[in-house]
């Protein structure tokens, strides 16, 4: 992802979720995607809420309730063509500043 788009993407995540959001590290267990944590209230602890741009090869056993965040159609296309379980995907477009949510059904088996 283009580093210049990262601040816009994070602003969209915070605005869309309406919650406090923090970035974690890249996670090999989550396809080297960047972990995002959120908390609904100041008193509550941060919890894993989503993963930004995981490798499509990691999607075969993806938890159904863990949101994948992608910056546009190119990433969404890569995810749709990979073998995967049912996925919850947030398509964030930093250029248009639009966000779409999509439930992507199981992908092709290989």
Descriptive account of the structure:
- The structure is a single chain.
- The chain is α/β, with parallel strands linked by helices and 110 residues long.
- The model has no long low-confidence stretch (mean pLDDT 85).
- It has helices spanning 6-17, 73-81, and strands at residues 20-27, 33-39, 47-52, 67-70, 87-93, 98-104.
- The chain has a six-stranded mixed β-sheet.
- The chain contains two helices and six strands.
- It starts with 5 loop residues before the first helix and ends in a 6-residue tail after the last strand.
Order of helices and strands: HEEEEHEE
Which percent range fits the helix content? 10-25%
Please report the number of helical segments. Answer: 2
The average pLDDT is 85
Biggest sheet overview: 6 strands, mixed
Radius of gyration of CA atoms, rounded to a whole number: 13 Å
Classification by helices and strands: alpha/beta
Terminus-to-terminus distance: 27 Å
**Widest sheet: strand ordering:** 1-2-3-4-5-6
What would you call the shape? globular
Poorly predicted tracts of residues: none
Number of strands: 6
Q: Which range does the strand content fall in?
A: 35-45%
